[in-house]
Amino acid sequence: MGRAPCCEKMGLKKGPWTPEEDQILISFIQQNGHGNWRALPKQAGLLRCGKSCRLRWTNYLRPDIKRGNFTKEEEDTIIQLHEMLGNRWSAIAAKLPGRTDNEIKNVWHTHLKKKLKDYKPPQNPKRHSKNHDSKGPTTSESSNNSHLTFIYTQKHIIDSSVPAPNSPQISSSTEMSTVTLVDDHQMVIKQEEMESSEYFPEIDESFWTDKLSTDNNWSNTHDHVMVTADQELQVQLPFSSLKEENVDMLTTKMEDDMDFWYNVFIKTDDLPELPEF
DNA sequence: AACGTTGCCAACCGCCATGCT
DNA sequence: TAGCATGGCGGTTGGCAACGT
């Protein structure tokens, strides 16, 4: 349809905003709000297009914008959410009050992508060949699927007295499980309060081959897992359903202090029917 | 000191979804 | 229901500063 970019109109300024322009925009929005971005610059006396005004406001001038470096917690959150949501920056930003999608996108591309490379396990160790090519965000694929996609998080809480996670000496762990609704198509599942005496495994390709093979002991170890959503819904998922063909992709190994967990995208085609949320 | 390279980040671009007429 | 206007989103770009040679 070729609608011309609004800024192509003659006489409209582009490029960095001046403090004076910022002040005009802030004052106008404080007094009048921003009901119509297209009309706003004319009303405010700015030689900018509405789109530029909106971006400047939402990304920089909004009073609730949190400026400054990202904390480690925020970075971890972004990494986790990115594993779940892919490049859905606005959805990620919604989980980080005061941060904008643009800012998060920049941080991801400049810092976190590199950081993640350092500790990410071998990319896509169990990415099954069927219906998937080898690139593209896992979640956008997932959310485009007609079936629900679950993200299963296996979390091991390690006793501080035991050696490092890669060591086979770890003698006990507790697995946790909860479900939170991420969006219409995704949930995060964590195991909850399930005793496990298995060693904390070294995660690599062979781990998933072993664990997810048809006769794996992992999925059969815990027959049912209680999961909750928003503290209201409780369902039981039979772990025995988690067979290799259900697992879309192992994503990131996450760690902080004593905790380690792994995200796994799980197709639910063969899982039991779940109640409506 | 001058020049080239790299990294960062604000801003822009184009597409899509939604709402209105 | 179609067409248009607008807002929102993700990808990309361009300018600037820091750093290296």
Describe this structure in words.
With 277 residues, this protein is α+β, with helices and mostly antiparallel strands. It has nine helices and nine strands. Strands 1, 2, 3, 4, 5, 8 and 9 form a seven-stranded mixed sheet that branches. It has a two-stranded antiparallel ribbon with strand order 6-7. The structure holds a DNA duplex (21 and 21 nucleotides).
What key attributes describe this structure?
seven-stranded mixed beta sheet; Homeodomain-like_sf; disordered C terminus; Arc Repressor Mutant, subunit A; Myb_TF_plants; DNA-binding; two-stranded antiparallel sheet; 20% strand; alpha+beta; 277 residues
CATH architecture of one domain: Orthogonal Bundle
Structural class by sheet pairing and helices: alpha+beta
Share of β-strand residues = 15-25%
From the N-terminal CA to the C-terminal CA, the straight-line distance is 39 Å
Q: Which H/E pattern describes the elements?
A: HHHHHHHEEEEEHHEEEE
What would you report as the Rg, rounded to the nearest angstrom?
23 Å
Instruction: List the total number of helices.
Output: 9
How many strand segments? 9
Q: Percent of residues in helical segments?
A: 25-40%
Q: How confident is the prediction overall: mean pLDDT? A: 54
Low-confidence stretches: 1-8, 120-277
Q: What's the CATH topology label of one domain?
A: Arc Repressor Mutant, subunit A
Just give the CATH class of one domain.
Mainly Alpha
**In CATH, what is the homologous superfamily of one domain?**
Homeodomain-like
Largest sheet: 7 strands, mixed
